[in-house]
Write a structure and sequence with these properties.
This protein folds into two domains: about 20-50 and about 315-455, Aspartate Aminotransferase, domain 1; about 60-310, Type I PLP-dependent aspartate aminotransferase-like (Major domain) (Aspartate Aminotransferase, domain 2), CATH 3.40.640. The chain has 15 helices and 14 strands. Helix content is about 40%, strand content about 15%. Helix 1 (about 20-30) packs across helix 14, helix 3 packs parallel to helix 11 (about 300-310) and helix 8 (about 220-230) packs across helix 9 (about 240-245). Bound molecules: pyridoxal-5'-phosphate.
């Protein structure tokens, strides 16, 4: 494979601990077989999430020292607003403490009546939860290619346009509160959405006077995939692509802990200042803090302003999506099935196919994550039926369309040698795949259960 030029060098290092297999067996049992309950210092390579785990640049650290901590109207706020307005072309930009804070503010404004539906290419779990908490009903509407992990297709994150139309017609437009486009589509493997698909979705939203919202956590990786894969975009910059893409929507929510490479932060953007903005401001002041800091310190706002630009840098993005492609190529060598092609921020292993002896309600994605930790101290997580909360009406478990184990790659943190360890460890697990045990939940909360449930192995 062609080498990946890493467009940075390392100036500061953090030691990581190497544990023995015996120690790890004890540690995961003591954590009730839930990797979220492990101490991070007992993890060798942490692929639990790419959220807030990136390495900031020297320019971001320098900006933090210059952060303006004024309660209202600070310099760092204006730096962030100017940068974000220029990138996204939206009139109103609201900082918030992270992505779910933007969701918490937006969905009570959008969902006007209990029971109204919000339709997405696929909801991320916090977005799904906030639609529900606002009284809405979240429905996923991803294109069929997104659910076939063995199929190689360029834009597997797309909205299924025909089903979107049919769902609005079936429900009646008054029963729909809005449409959400998640970029990249995290839950189906960090798969991108094409510009053509966004345009078609926007046309439906306009025709029905429905607001179109971008869940924009990985907007820059999505733009880079469009540049690489969609006809007519090879010569456009990721900034131009981003501007066009956001031009089709009305609102965006963003976790800035991903593509803006900060450890904390989020944004909410509204294209036209008039509608929704007064309600957004009231909810932000009540829940997050005054509008010019939105739950962040001035130094966080300053780091975010710099990170938004760095996240769009094309040599960085080539390295970034190159890393997951490299890991996927190594997994091919050891026969591990995954959602093809590799996503932008992660490789999603198809644990349902790797562990066919485990039924969905023994959580193959979770079982593989535990096994990978025991093998090499690598922490990952289930994106499958364990992640799905119970049906709020029937209380029954819900089956996910695919049973994934997600290897999320933090930004600018791990080297190619770390990626080699991950592939080799999975190769070892593959040799004993038929012995991997399933899991049962012994206690769980009502919502977002995968974070705090306790489990035990079956048999
Ligand atoms: C697509 C997507 N939307 C929203 C969120 C929520 O963001 P945060 O974790 O900053 O609250 C995430 C986080 O992983 C995400 O991946």
């Amino acid at each position: 494979m062609k080498y990946i030029p890493e467009p940075f060098k390392i100036k500061m290092v953090e030691p990581i601990k190497v544990t023995t297999e015996e120690e790890r067996r004890g540690l995961i049992a003591a954590a009730d077989y839930n990797a979220f309950s492990l101490k991070a210092e007992d993890v060798y390579i942490d692929l639990l999430t790419d959220s807030g785990t990136g390495a900031m640049s020297d320019a971001q650290w320098a900006a933090m020292l210059m952060g303006d901590e004024s309660y209202s109207g600070g310099r760092s706020y204006y730096q962030l607003i100017d940068t974000a307005k220029e990138i996204f072309g939206y009139e109103y930009i609201q900082p918030v403490h992270q992505g779910r804070a933007a969701e918490k503010v937006l969905f009570p404004v959008l969902v006007e009546r209990p029971g109204q539906t919000v339709i997405a290419n696929t909801f991320f779990d916090t977005t799904r939860a906030h639609v529900g908490l606002a009284g809405g009903r979240p429905i996923d509407c991803v294109c069929p290619e997104g659910l076939d992990s063995a199929l190689d297709a360029p834009f597997k994150g797309n909205m299924d346009i025909a089903t979107l139309e049919a769902t609005i017609a079936d429900l009646g437009v008054d029963n729909v509160a809005g449409i959400v486009m998640t970029i990249t589509n995290n839950s189906v493997g960090g798969q991108p959405v094409s510009m053509a698909n966004m345009r078609a979705t926007a046309e439906i939203a306009r025709r029905h006077h429905l607001p179109l919202v971008i869940d924009a956590a990985r907007f820059a990786e999505n733009a880079f995939f469009i540049k690489q894969r969609e006809e007519g975009y090879a010569d456009k910059s990721t900034r131009e692509i981003t501007r066009e893409f956001f031009g089709y929507a009305d609102i965006f929510t963003m976790s800035a802990k991903k593509d803006a490479i900060t450890n904390m932060g989020g944004l909410l953007g509204v294209k036209e200042e008039g509608e929704h903005v007064p309600d957004v401001k009231s909810l932000v002041i009540a829940g997050e803090g005054y509008v010019t800091y939105g739950g962040l310190s001035g130094r966080d706002l300053a780091a975010l302003a710099v990170g938004l630009g760095e996240g769009l840098d094309e040599s960085y993005l080539a390295y970034r999506v190159g890393q997951s492609a490299y890991l996927a190529a190594r997994l091919d060598e050891v026969g591990i099935p995954y959602q093809r092609p590799a996503g932008g921020h992660a490789v999603f292993i198809d644990a349902g196919r790797l562990l066919p002896h485990l039924p969905w309600n023994q959580y193959p994605g979770h079982a593989l994550a535990v096994e990978l930790y025991v093998e090499a101290g690598i922490r990952s997580c289930d994106i499958g039926s364990f992640l799905m909360d119970r049906d709020p009406e029937t209380g029954l478990e819900q089956r996910a369309p695919l049973e994934f184990t997600r290897l999320a790659i933090p930004r600018r943190v791990y080297t190619q040698a770390h990626l080699d360890v991950i592939a080799e460890a999975l190769g070892e697990v593959n040799k004993r795949a038929d012995e991997v045990k399933g899991y049962q939940i012994i206690s769980e909360p009502k919502v977002l259960r995968h974070f705090t449930s306790k489990l035990r192995p079956i048999g």
